[in-house]
Write a structure and sequence with these properties.
By secondary structure, the chain is an alpha+beta fold. It is built from 12 helices and 10 strands.
Length: 327
């Protein structure tokens, strides 16, 4: 997509440029994890093109299903007409399923929320409220036809519930932070804990009762001039809503946001009567663990002591299923 003449030809061929529209520039809008992403500027407008390729863009050694672009397109179509959802995401302009490309609204030069992992960086109360209300409303959508997204779920399952806990997975955790391998070691040989984690992995893979985002963490939130926007729903599927809430709260803890934001999320989300607090607790603990000792590392500013404490707390939430009682 960096070849302007080839891109001009492609967009003309599929009918998505006006008769006098000419591409003036392309640029990288930010660091994408899963997909190849480019901002396209013409003499009339600008928009974002995303292409899913058969690997994870950030980790090319990891294969990934190319159909994920159409999952994202379907998600953006499903939320049309629901104000709390539609207005919180970029609009889908068009999609090209044959080439696994979609065009979405350009939300401007913005950054994600991974800055909150840094010391003294806090998410605003308004942004936290908007993200939580988005999640609450999403989980209340009536179920309708949606891609099973099985291959993306299997990819996520591998890197959440299995790979981080393998005794020999090839990861040099000490290259991430000296002493981290020793932190991980006891958990890789704790067969009882690994069995519990495996059980929750099977629940994750099973059909669920809500449309979930599937990757609801600060890297999927954009900080724009119009407030927080939710992006990258390529992991979406009909699954357990407890997973989205658990991931969101786990990342508040990884980012050391304090108890107040966590309690606010819980209060604003208003868990319904059928919300499984044991499942929620376990998912939160597993997300913390996999982010600390798995491949999907975050720009955390945590000491080894901090990570030991978090791993111990995560273990408690998995085994005792008591996180909700702390909220």
């Amino acid at each position: 997509m960096e070849d302007l003449s080839a891109l001009q030809h492609y967009l003309n061929r599929i009918g998505h440029l006006g008769p006098d529209e000419e591409i003036k520039y392309t640029e990288k809008p930010g660091e994408g994890n899963m997909n190849y992403v480019v901002r396209v500027g013409t003499n009339q407008r600008h928009f974002i093109l995303k292409q899913s390729r058969p690997w994870v863009e950030k980790y090319p050694q990891i294969a990934a299903p190319v159909e994920r672009s159409q999952v994202e397109a379907t998600f953006l179509e499903k939320i049309q007409g629901v104000d709390e959802l539609e207005n919180s995401c970029p609009k889908l302009l068009w999609s090209d399923p044959q080439n696994y490309i979609l065009a979405i609204e350009d939300l401007g030069r913005s950054s994600d929320f991974t800055h909150i992992y840094a010391k003294h960086e806090k998410i605003s109360s308004d942004d936290l409220e908007s993200a939580t209300i988005f999640l609450r409303r999403l989980h209340k959508l009536p179920l309708s036809t949606f891609p099973e997204n099985r291959e993306m779920r299997k990819l996520n399952h591998e890197h959440i519930f299995r790979f981080p806990f393998l005794r020999e997975n090839g990861l040099d955790l000490d290259a991430t932070q000296k002493g981290l391998a020793s932190v991980a070691a006891p958990f890789k040989v704790n067969e009882k804990l690994k069995s519990e984690i495996s059980k929750y992995g099977e629940i994750y893979l099973a059909p669920g009762r809500a449309l979930i985002h599937g990757d609801f963490y600060p890297g999927s939130w954009l900080n724009t001039n119009e407030g927080i926007k939710i992006i990258d729903p390529e992991f979406a599927f009909h699954g357990p809503p407890e997973f989205d809430v658990a991931v969101m709260i786990a990342h508040m803890m990884l980012a050391k946001q304090g108890k107040r934001p966590v309690k606010k999320i819980w209060k604003l989300y208003q868990p319904p009567a059928n919300f499984d607090t044991a499942l929620f607790s376990a998912f939160a603990g597993i997300e913390i663990m996999r982010r600390l000792i798995g491949i999907a590392q975050l720009p955390l500013e945590l000491s080894i002591a901090d990570k030991i404490n978090l791993m111990a707390k995560a273990t408690e939430w998995i085994e005792k299923k008591n996180l909700a009682g702390e909220l």
